[in-house]
Amino acid sequence: MEVQKLNGYTLGGKAEIGIEQLQAELEKVKKDFEKDSRSKNGTWNNGTSEQAFINREIYKNLPGILKKGCSILKDAIEKEVFLLGGIGIISGLLPNVSGFYDGKDYQANLYVYILGKFGSGKGSLSYCRKLGAPIHAEKLLNYEDALKEYLGELVEYKKKLTRFKKSKGRYQDPPEEPEAPKQEMLFIPANNSKTGAFELLSNNKGYGIIFETEGDSLADALRQDYGNYSDGLRKAFHHELISYYRRGGKEYVEIKQPKLSVVLSSTFDQFRKLIPSVQNGLFSRFMYYELGSNPEFKNVFDKAKSGNPAFFDNLGQEMYRMHKLLLERKEPIYFELTPNQEAQFLGLFQEWKKEFQEYISEDLDGTVHRLGLICFRIALILTTLRNFDNKLLIANKMICQDIDFSIALQLISSIKQNSIKLFYQFPEEKTGTNPFSEKAIFGYITPN
Asked: Predicted confidence band at 118 (pLDDT cuts at 50, 70, 90)?
């Protein structure tokens, strides 16, 4: 039987096939892929088979804080959500650590987006926030103390000013008005005005984390005229200068090197409000994890989880000590890959860039480039955490450990797959999309 030729494509190295047979084969391989993933990653969650996003071998080799947090969580989805969300939070807690990438110095800051239906397992993201909670609480407490001191000084100032006015020139100089303290906080509210968000970032010397479990809160702010700061989010990812004007204080402000991390979660519909298009510059700046559905109703009375809040509070204290150690350094730590790691890195991303262009879409050029930066930052985070465990955060130079480089490559490979899957859920507004692009996900179709 003669088979129709399809643009020079063959299936798994076999003879050329017709389009109906090709579609049938693709459906079959998708099912096989899901089945293989489940068997490869094991049976978790009280015997429930789940398609794990992250190979469980990774958890055995994580550095301390991440390993401890993942170990107490028994559900596969909760582990994955905490790992990626935790990396996102920690990326905003590593001052004075940077590495040279593409012509400039970058710090660890990442943008993380967890996607899933209501009740799909995003709840463990709340544990991630606890990693930064002590730092946030300290900043709020310091502001409260400074505000009390300011209010006392303000009372004295007004008394002196009254006496000065009554003196009729006996006092040469009027009293000096005290300066109000600047509000500092680690976690910047997502539902904020553009000026309000940037002002909080500026008050905190350019550092901050946007953490929001309902992504449409940020989306609603971005859609408002007063809150359209998506340009600032795009700039902050690359530490590019952000400027704004404070009308009340009549002050022009520049944040020269913003270090902003973002951790969001929402449903896909809420996500589309924030990032309506692949061409939107925010799409390529996030690392995505899309939760699969779980057919089991979880045990909401599991008393083994009763100690989780206190456990993660303690991890937050450990992270606080690490943050303070880095903050008090007189000289920054400079992170580098080894020559062998650099060669492997460049080879992998060159291959991915070609793959994206040939089999998916040129619309994802920005994504593959930023996946490289995300991978570099993940490696930086992992090695910093591991050096903290081993009391090695002393020298000014830090070489990426091979185990951390390996974990970063494994994570970025999974993140890449999720980015591609998410790409295909957008409306057909993309250019240059190859209709047989499943190869990029399943590695199944090869060109002649």
From this structure: low
| Helix, coil or strand: residue 42 | coil
Tokens of 279: 């061409």
> Residues 263, 89: contact at Cβ < 8 Å?
yes
CATH of 20-132+186-447, one of 2.40.260, 3.40.50, 3.30.70, 1.10.150: 3.40.50
- Which residue in this structure is represented by tokens 């490289």? 372
How far apart are the C-alpha atoms of 399 and 65, rounded to whole Å?
20
CA 28: distance to chain centroid?
A: 34
Domain spans of the chain?
20-132+186-447
Local structure of 37: helix, strand or coil: helix
Can you tell me the distance from the alpha carbon of 111 to that of 121, in angstroms, rounded to the nearest whole number? 20
Reading the block at residue 378, the tokens are 């993940």
CA–CA separation, 368 vs 386, rounded Å? 27
Q: Name the pTM for this structure.
A: 0.83
Least-confidence region, from 58-67, 89-98, 285-294: 285-294
